Amino acid sequence: MKGKNWPILSSIAYAMLRSERGLETTIGPFRAMLLRPKLLSIVSLVLQAREIRNVRILKGKRFSLDDSSNSVAHNRNTSQTVEKFPITTRRSEILYQLANTAQPFISRRQRQLLVVGPRNTHELFIAWCHGFKWSNINAIDLFSINKKIQVMDVESMTFKDSTFDTVCMSGVFAYLTNPRTALSEINRVLRPNGIVVIRYPTAAAPVDFAPSNTLNPSQVINWAKELGMTLAYYSYEVHTNSIKTRQITSLMCLKKGVRDGPSCYESVEFSLPEL
Ligand SMILES: C[S@@+](CC[C@H](N)C(=O)[O-])C[C@H]1O[C@@H](n2cnc3c(N)ncnc32)[C@H](O)[C@@H]1O
To answer: Regarding predicted confidence, which is higher, 146 or 270?
Structure first.
């Protein structure tokens, strides 16, 4: 091979190997490897092991929001955190996959993420595996066993307006006494064109600790429209939940801002199947 070809070949090799600036389309081989089922559980277990001491202290109710309006949700979730330790569920993962699909034009590593109600670091680790930069992952819950999680109520957040590009809320909506207030707060802290991904039980057996676990998706979407948000994605699944009853779970993505053109959701009827 003639020496004059080297600059061309090395430019091609460099173009193939360098990471994309601004827009990453893949999560990279390391994080992809960590997403393998057993590996994710093992690494998460190591991370959660560092929180054991705080889980024990949680029994004594320290590190918590002193707010009686949330006491039922708080008591249920602190006891669940103690009983279900370590957590291995991957139910929140679809939120991060959907968030990445819904925001293809913003770099995953640059996006400011707010995770509402993660319970512990397990969900934050899943978010990191899906490409978010650790320092851009922010989290709030009614209690905290890790300094990465701030004690804050989603219905009255102290963040400034337009702080986040992405908000993910898995399994939290059902616990809220004022879900519309929470949505309004999320809309406030989202940047223009930012998105919130929500997964919550839409139809489930009534339980005292989850006052909003039968909230119809049409209701949530109407609130979102009133707040100036647009529905970007909706789906539901019928399954058996952890207390062994049948449940319909909704997954939706709402975008801050109104769409210019027509939406495929304009005429969707949210008729859900009977359980
Ligand atoms: C069922 S856990 C969900 C854990 C995790 N996101 C998942 O999907 O596996 C619900 C979490 O929401 C939190 N939560 C409930 N009400 C909240 C509120 N008003 N503000 C912030 N977090 C809340 C609970 O403390 C709990 O950690």
So the answer is: 146
pLDDT at 117: 96
Contact of 138 with 164, CB cutoff 8 Å: yes
Closest residue by CA, ligand 1 atom 3: 171
For CA atoms 71, 189, 122, 62, give the dihedral sign.
negative
Question: Does 141 sit in the ligand 1 pocket, CB within 6 Å?
Answer: yes
How far is Cα 172 from Cα 178, in angstroms, rounded to an integer?
12
Q: Tokens for 143?
A: 């209690």
Residue among 248, 259, 144, 149 at smallest CA distance from 195? 259
**Quick check: is 79 in a domain?**
yes
Proportion of the chain above pLDDT 90, given as a percent: 53
Answer whether 87's CB lies under 8 Å from 55's CB. no
5 domain residue, yes or no: no
Q: Which of 33-47, 50-64, 206-220, 235-249 has the highest mean pLDDT?
A: 33-47
Q: Report whether pLDDT(67) > 90.
A: no
The pair of structure tokens assigned to 253 is 């993505």
Quick check: is 264 in a domain?
no
Q: How far is the CA of 17 from the centre of ligand 1 (A)?
A: 40
Look at the chain and report how many structural domains it folds into: 1
The pLDDT value given to residue 21: 46
Q: What is the pLDDT of residue 13?
A: 65
The answer to whether the CB of 185 is under 6 A from ligand 1 is: no
Pocket test for ligand 1, best of 142, 144, 150, 242 (most atoms within 8 A of CB): 142
Asked if residue 176 has its Cβ within 6 Å of ligand 1, the reply is yes
Cα 117 to averaged position of ligand 1 atoms, centre (Å): 3
Q: Which range marks the domain in which residue 88 is found? A: 48-256
Asked whether residue 112 is domain-assigned, the answer is yes
Ligand 1: nearest atom to the Cα of 154: 20
Taking the centre of ligand 1 as the mean of its atom positions, its distance from the CA of residue 120, in whole angstroms, is 10
